[in-house]
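Worked Example 4.2. Consider the chain below.
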Amino acid sequence: MNKDRPTLSPLKIRPLETRDRTPWAQLYRQYADFYQSTMTDAILDRSWSWLMDPHHPLEGLVAEAEDQQLLGLAHFRACPDPLIAQDVGFLDDLFVAPDRRGSGIGRRLIVGVAAKGKERNWAVLRWITADSNAPARQLYDQLAQVTHWVSYDLDLQR
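Applying the procedure from the previous section yields the following structure tokens:
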């Protein structure tokens, strides 16, 4: 842990609950700002509705402090992988409040998602990050293997 970071009181990793809407939205807006991505109320509303719908594949975990403050979030889903004929997990979003980075919250959120994946017999948990996100990549390099795959986006709304 970075000695300049506050020491964490007990931390709970748990599924998102309806009472989390406001603090989740604050964290998710910060996540969008970090990646310089547009965030609107409509996007927040739709993402939240997915997260609260037990029939939608997107799920969320949060890191909650003893005082019930949300310090981080992880959004994830199952994805079929036809080459191995198994489901794998995909970690879409991982965010830790800037003043709590380096304190182990990101690791705990990934471990929490991985535990869900093990319960569901996922073959692997995958995620992507920006090449320039060096602090996060230091953590990811400790937990997983970097792959040789290159990611592409084809804009279908042009």
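The beta strands are 11-15, 59-65, 70-81, 86-96, 125-127. Confidence is low (pLDDT under 50) at residues 1-5. Compare this with Example 4.1 before moving on.
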